[in-house]
Amino acid sequence: MRTKLPACVVLLLLSGEEVTPFGVLPEFRPNLPPRRANGRPKTTHSLSPPHRHDQADTPSVNIKRNKFLDAQAEHDLDYVYGINSVSSVLVKNERTIHSVLVNQHIRLNKKTRKQAYRYIFDTLKERGIPIRTTSKRKMDDLVGGFPHNDIIMQTSYRTMKRAKHFLKDYPQKGKQKSIYICLHDIDTPVLHSSVGTSEFLDFFHVNDMLSFMDDLKSCGFKILSTCCRLDNSSTNDRLQELANVRLSKNEKAFIILGNETKGLSKEILDRSDACIYISGHHTEEASTPALNSNGNFTLDSLNVNNACAILLYHFASHLA
């Protein structure tokens, strides 16, 4: 249950009192190094070079960030940080917001952020969401060093609807949207909370992909699956290079992206209307012909994020 916001937010922001951020999370309690009598830290910066063997050094930024993401999932909590993402959560007003942590020295009058801060704190006050203040260093430790713009929000995770809701809701939304993306068997997908735009995307969960594809076809969708370019000995009538694929404004496209290592299954590819690939530009003779019957290989090093961005840009730019 949300507690009421104190009468004056400014007093909280300027008080500088010590607080425990967002309840008990032992993994993220700041482990401050012991200090000398003159107040200077005894240990070096967390990004100390590898040749230093001081065991008191803190982990690297990447390690801290990975630990933060793992612990975040374990505690079923989502930390939203950054002005854009926090504003988006407030605008969408879909999540349950537990509390907000703010840098005790936050500069509310900063020209580039003044208007955004005004909206954020006015909305928090209006909804009675508690605000706590602490030091920037503790905030850095809490989110594993990710940039937070002096504000961190503890919220519930966004929940995904089942695929049947997509089919049910589509007639009402079909006229507004024409391209849909499906991430199939993607390992540990991470949605960067600092973006904010994701708050306005609808997410659905599919249990039976093949049956869902049949339902999509019955609704008039064109299903495009991503794949690698096959060698010369293989043929596929549905295989097309992305540059040659076009969509009309009236077409409803459902694009399926597979795992970066395994790709999509043969069953999914066979049910697709087209199998599209992004042409690589660097081809060399295979150094180990026994491992590659084609004798050539193409360096395709795109991850799912990059491939998805290229696909969306292509189709959005070439709608007939």
Would you write up a description of this structure?
- The chain is an alpha/beta fold and 320 residues long.
- It folds into two domains: 9-155, Ribosomal protein L30/S12 (60s Ribosomal Protein L30, Chain: A); 161-317, SPOUT methyltransferase, trefoil knot domain (Alpha/beta knot).
- The chain is 29% helix and 17% strand.
- The protein has helices spanning 9-15, 61-74, 83-92, 114-127, 136-142, 163-173, 209-218, 266-271, 304-317; strands at residues 78-81, 97-103, 131-134, 151-155, 161-162, 179-183, 204-205, 221-226, 239-241, 252-257, 274-277, 283-285, 296-298.
- The strands form four sheets. The protein has a five-stranded parallel beta sheet, sandwiched between helices. Strands 1-4-2-3 form a four-stranded mixed beta sheet.
- The longest helix is centred in the first third of the chain and has 14 residues, at 61-74.
- The protein is elongated.
- Mean pLDDT is 73; it is low at 1-58 and 291-295.
